[in-house]
Amino acid sequence: MRIGLFATCLGDTLFPDAVRSTAVLLTRLGHEVVFPPEQTCCGQMHINTGYQREPVPLVRNFAEQFGDATIDAVVMPSGSCAGSVRHQHAIVADRYGDAALRAGVAAVAAKTYELSELLVDVLGVIGVGAYFPHRVTYHPTCHSLRMLRVGDRPLRLLRAVESIDLVELPGADSCCGFGGTFALKNAETSTAMLHDKLAGIATTGAEVCTAGDSSCLMHIGGGLSRIRSGTRTLHLARILAATRATPDVLTEAASV
Hints:
This protein is α/β, with parallel strands linked by helices. The chain has helices at residues 9-13, 16-28, 44-48, 56-66, 79-96, 99-109, 115-122, 142-147, 153-159, 182-185, 187-204, 214-226, 236-241, 249-255, and strands at residues 2-5, 32-34, 73-76, 112-114, 135-138, 165-167, 208-211, 232-235. The strands form 2 sheets. Strands 2-1-3-4 form a 4-stranded parallel sheet, with helices on both faces. Strands 6-5-7-8 form a 4-stranded parallel sheet, sandwiched between helices. Strand 7 (208-211), helix 12 (214-226) and strand 8 form a beta-alpha-beta unit. Helix 4 (56-66) crosses helix 6, helix 5 runs antiparallel to helix 6 and helix 11 packs across helix 12 (214-226). The model has no long low-confidence stretch (mean pLDDT 94).
């Protein structure tokens, strides 16, 4: 399968390892990964903040970059960006676009997936050959849980990882408090929600908290580091890309 990889803004600027791991994983599974070089932000942050006309150029560019008929599927290591492409782009195109944009958006949305969806539903794999000998807990992010409804797909993938010690996160389906600009506009509420999430993580004794969105992991990771919990955050893609031959840096450090 020829798969178009969307990096996302956070992946491009702050968490390139999540994007790189997605490419490594899919290539290892025998697929061709292509990276349209003119891709830009998908426009999610504009839309979420109430600016629906402004991201029209971004939505149009996304449809053009990934609308290539030779690209069988589009994947991104982000439930929130996948949710924006699948649901919000149509809203923008319907309100402020033209017929060509509406058609392009619909075509790309139909083949766009968050990583766990692509692996389980499209590629039909659960065991991806991953090896990660650490205690891990999983946080289901709001967009993946409520907008995309990925359900237990990430957990099914994690359970199939060799040597992993996967522990359930109490209150897993509660928001971590990030929500993009919500964390800035409602800092006190966001911090209180984060406190509850950190308390749940603490009860697991996990070395790693993983999720499918770098944005939530950034928020949770910041809280964990400030309280010096000893738990680190790691994107799901990095765990799934790790093998015995090419372990993640966390495993490499532990073996030194």
